[in-house]
Amino acid sequence: MTFVDGPVRVRVPATSANLGPGFDTLGLALDLRDELEAEVIADGLLVEVSGYGAGQVPLDERHLVVRAMRATFDRLGKQPTGLRLTCKNVIPHARGLGSSSAAIVAGVWLARELVAGGRLLLDEAALLDLAAQLEGHPDNVAPALLGGFVISGQDADGSFWAVPAGVDPRISAVVFVPSSPVSTEAARGLLPAEVPHADAAANAGRTALLVAALSGRPEELLRATEDRLHQSYRRSAMPESLALVEALRADGVPAVISGAGPTVLAFADGPDSAATEALLARCPQGWGGLALAVSDTGAVSA
Ligand code: HSE
């Protein structure tokens, strides 16, 4: 196995998981991308970070992109002599917009690109499986890798799968990003070990409806984004976010907690529409409001 000369680059989109009822299974890629570059060097590890995480994330072997790269090199059979990595982060950290999945997908992608013939050694399914193993659940890494709207899960043997599904081109998103983070670990810790059968049944129906709503029946999005399995249980970690979801939904806007929160995602009808402008005007003071198109593409070499 040999490494390629010179730098390789990747751009990876933000993602919103769950989308209401599809806990740990539905995810959507959004048009907001981290940009990364990596190169094999003679020795050592040089990591540079700008944007989100600069001055906060460790610049050594603990860096999430580096860990994902190391795992991929191990899978491919050899570590490089040295490594240089540059990360330009525009996806907010610990806000429910898939920044850690973007880092993992970037890492596995860059490592594969640095290996001569890497795409033949590790196909898309193997790359997805590796990224999902590193993240622990597939609902962010799958759309980060494949783009668009993706249904994903894990089989009994532990392997992960992902199936892209259609998104009506009329559908876009507005995200409301709070100023304070919530860790996914903390948000997952609030979930009960068991849920009432009626709640599980309600979510199963809504999840199925959401696939239809996103693929061409946007008028069903409000009903289809109802959730009974995770959002309310997480209220204590993000009370303002839950209050915004409820206020928007009371006004007929299909709004959900994005991933493990605390960002709120509302479905809209195009980044430049009047409805999107009206939604952005509802952004709470001190939060960031962004109108984002659905990203049809996932990770791409840049
Ligand atoms: N499905 C995950 C959760 C997404 O809600 O915990 C966060 O990564």
Identify low-pLDDT runs.
none
The largest β sheet comes out as: 7 strands, mixed
What would you say the CATH architecture of the largest domain is?
A: 2-Layer Sandwich
Number of helices: 10
Spatial gap, N to C terminus: 24 Å
Secondary structure tally: strands: 11
Mean residue pLDDT: 97
Ions, cofactors and other ligands present here are: L-homoserine
The name CATH uses for the topology of the largest domain is Ribosomal Protein S5, domain 2
Helix/sheet category: alpha+beta
Q: What's the number of domains?
A: 2
Radius of gyration, in Å, reads 19 Å
- Taken in chain order, the helices and strands follow as EEEHEHHHHEEEHHHHEEHEE
CATH class of the largest domain: Alpha Beta
Helix content range of the residues, please? 25-40%
Write the layout of secondary structure elements.
Layout: E1 8-18, E2 22-41, E3 44-51, H1 64-76, E4 82-89, H2 99-114, H3 118-121, H4 124-135, H5 141-146, E5 149-154, E6 160-165, E7 172-177, H6 184-189, H7 197-214, H8 221-224, H9 239-250, E8 255-257, E9 264-268, H10 274-280, E10 288-293, E11 300-301
Parallel strand pairs: 3-4
Antiparallel strand pairs: 1-2, 1-11, 2-4, 2-5, 5-6, 7-9, 7-10, 8-9
Helix pairs in contact: 1-2, 2-4
The chain binds L-homoserine (HSE).
Residues 17-18, 23-24, 137, 139-140, 184, 187-188, 230, 259-260 line the site of L-homoserine (HSE).
Domain GHMP kinase N-terminal: 64-148
Domain GHMP kinase C-terminal: 211-275
Main location: cytoplasm
